[in-house]
Amino acid sequence: MTAFPAGTVLGYPRLGPQRELKRALEAHWAGRLDAAGLEDAARALRARTRSHLAALGLSADGSAIPEASSLYDQVLDAIVATGAVPSRFTAPGPDSVLDADGGVSLAGYFTLARGSEAHPALEMTKWFDTNYHYLVPELAPDQAFRADPSRLAAQVAEARAQGFVTRPVLVGPVTLLALAKPAADAPEGFQPLSLLDRLLPVYAELLSALREAGAEWVQLDEPALVSESLDATPAELAAAAAQAYAVLGALEARARLLVTTPYGSPSEAAWAALTAAPVEALAIDLVRGSLPAAAPGLADKTLVAGVVDGRNVWRGDLAAAFDTLEAAASLGAAAVTVGTSTSLQHLPHTVADETALDPRLVSWLAFADERVAQVTTLARGLGEGRAAIAAELDAATAALADRAAADGVRVEAVRARTAALTPADIERLPAHERAVIQQDRLALPILPTTTIGSFPQTAELRIARAQHARGEATTEAYEEVLRLEIARVIGLQEEIGLDVLVHGEPERNDMVQYFAEHLDGFAVTRNGWVQSYGSRATRPSLLWGDVSRPAPITVRWAEFAQSLSEKHVKGMLTGPVTILAWSFVRDDLALGETARQVALALRDEIADLEAAGIAIVQVDEPALRELLPLRADAQEEYLRWSVDAFRLATAGAAPETQIHTHLCYSEFGVVLDAIRGLDADVTSIEAARSRGEVIAELAAAGFDRGIGPGAYDIHSPRVPSTDEVAALLTLAAEQLPLRQVWVNPDCGLKTRAYPETIAALTHLVEATARVRETV
Ligand code: GLN
Ligand code: ZN
Fold first, then answer.
1. For labeling, which of 315, 462, 524, 527 is most exposed (least CB within 10 Å)?
2. DSSP β-ladder status, 500-501 and 520-523
3. EC number(s) of the enzyme (predicted)?
4. Is residue 452 lining ligand 1, measured as CB closer than 6 Å?
């Protein structure tokens, strides 16, 4: 058996350089590609990934190449491999997700991920503090487990046949349980982590099957050990890790084990548990995390030092990374090798595709392939000494210096403006005084009705935008399409009888990219796709320099929409935290400072909207909770700068301008105070899926601003009945002071089609009229 390789990556982008897997998946779901065709496409992509990674310098037969593909999600893969399928999916009959042998069928796999007529899908939520979403395991106290190594073992064998010894990657047992939620019928207080005893034999079986298939090393990912934001405490997680790796390490027939703790530092207790466990290698994140304590248990282990950033795009300080590697050598491990901090699944494939970007900016970047090259360089340095890689280290240092000195990276006028800010800049008149002034100006009925901003993005719109982007349509022609669409959306809202209108956001393909395209300091990529979930990918913008607004962004669209109606039309902006959360951010400036720069640009935009006669401005912050740090001690500081950035963006507004915000969720927890702190006049939130439970929570917390609990779920094409909407509204009107309650859908309508949208909004207005009569 081989030693752990000198350099490796913990994972690699999974959709393919041209999103081949996305296309195959969507063709399969649409019935245009059969199961065999899908499997062929996935197999071809896996083969390409292996040979590509070998060509980039990872050892082909030394377990350096991770076997880390997925047809949808790695947590779902672990659910399937351990047979941890919730019983609601397995009742015998045609709707079961299991095949005749009791394993999950391919169709069943996609039912778990996407739902079917008979089964709502598994819930989806964010993977640690990234923008990747995983499927949430649902476990009951009597959950059955059953090892199904078939897929991963077949891939290891397939790699062998291709001439590769790869390293299969699996979510580890502690993390699988720690991310699970109790099934709906589980008794109060049930902890999924209590199932560990029964889960471990299943992992043991998986490990021995993978060994038999030809794996020499297996990677188990345990990011739960770095988080303080899970239901289980760090102490409980560490105890579970101690138990799990004592058992798995002691197995006779198994491959060697690499246990990883990406996305931060493992808790002290978890680190003690892992270093004491009989496993052969540990991988730590030395980009987000810091160097852990030396531990005697390391003496027989390889330490895979994750000094190459798996999450952000900056080429970075390679010499400093090499210093960190040398420092890691002092921890007492038998060997130190080079790794990425996390899987590279959070990065686009290669900067070589970005031919439309300024080459100078490109020279400062490293996407997944360039990260692999950094790993192999550093590994060579470890083997042959620093002098052997001096040229590469110097080139990276020179790129850093070039970046620091480049025009636009540091703009004195922008810095001077943020430096001059005072506490008064984030204060408005007290909210209750504003409310009176606003009601005078806006003259809205009780239970005012509105929408969250976007209307359905029609095929015509998408075609027009694509033609314009390719230069096949003139800007005048494209803008005429936009004006026609805005006029149609305004007319429609008037007809339906909504009180506060929107322009429908037809000019935006994406709520962040649109702003990035219009702000200095940002760049957008051509092919910089990053998997968000399943077949979905986003193209995060690159925030590379100081941010400012060269010209108004949304004003003429808002002004045009307002000119078409006597009713108020909301201005519609994306908030500073969401703009940062959905971009690749700078590593050379504190996030809080960048947030202030973005906030000032938005503040100017709001002033221009006001000057154009707009009375209501909505600033969306759906990502406010997403960026919340995993470690409790970092949360307070984050909430301070993020809330202040929102206030800085909005507090320049006159008291008679009503500021709305929109959040896409309803589990507020630690962020409830932060939401109050935003000081918005009206907040719209998700509420329909939890059937309004959040309303009682807000009432109990004494939330005393306008609140629009989403009256129906826009994530499904289902049209809510008038009765259903009326019931939710009645609930809100009973529990909250009436003048606070707004009526709106859960979220924007851009992913819906028009027929269901018109029907649902009509029911929403009818329900409002009915409830208004009863209160
Ligand atoms: N205004 C945006 C829209 O309606 C909000 C979307 C979001 O919160 N994700 O599309
Ligand atoms: Zn939303």
1. 462
2. unpaired
3. 2.1.1.14
4. yes
* Helix axes 74-81 and 106-114, enclosed angle (nearest 10): 130
- The residue whose CB lies within 8 Å of the most ligand 1 atoms, and thus the one to mutate among 503, 509, 617, 662, is 662
Q: What's the whole-number mean pLDDT along residues 458-485? A: 95
d(CA 603, CA 648): 7
Q: What is the pTM of this model?
A: 0.94
Q: What is the pLDDT of residues 24-41, one digit of tens each?
A: 999 999 999 999 999 999
- Cα 736 to chain centroid, rounded: 32
- Stretch 360-389: mean pLDDT, rounded? 98
Q: How many CB atoms are located within 10 Å of the residue 629 CB?
A: 18
Higher per-residue confidence, 117 vs 710: 710
Distance from Cα 454 to the centre of ligand 1, integer Å = 6
Q: Which ligand is nearest to the CA of 686?
A: 2
pLDDT at 691 over 80: no
Cβ of 620 closer than 6 Å to ligand 1, yes or no, is yes
Length of the chain equals 775
Nearest ligand to the CA of 538 is 1
> Contact, 364 vs 45, CB < 8 A?
no
Q: Measured over all CA atoms, what is the biggest interatomic distance in the chain, rounded to whole angstroms?
A: 81
Which string of b and e fits 358-389 if b means at least 16 CB within 10 Å?
A: eeebbebbbbbbbbbebbbbbbbbbeeeeeeb
Backbone CA torsion sign across 151, 153, 156, 158:
negative
CA distance 229 to 206: 29
Any atom of ligand 1 within 6 Å of the Cβ of 621? no
- pLDDT band of 622, cuts 50, 70, 90: very high
Residues with catalytic annotation? 715
Residue 688's nearest CA partner among 714, 669, 706 is 714
Q: What is d(CA 336, CA 328) in angstroms, rounded to the nearest whole number?
A: 7
Distance in angstroms (rounded) separating the CA atoms of residues 690 and 136: 17
Residue found under tokens 């949360």: 635
Calculate Rg over the CA atoms of the chain.
27
Other CB atoms within 10 Å distance of the CB of residue 105: 15
The protein residue with its alpha carbon nearest to ligand 1, atom 8, reads: 622
Q: How far is CA 222 from the centre of its chain?
A: 19
Q: Which residue has the tokens 């069928």?
A: 105
Q: Count of CB atoms within 10 A of residue 537's CB?
A: 18
The answer to whether 27 and 33 have CB atoms below 8 angstroms apart is yes
Per the annotation, does 532 bind a ligand?
no
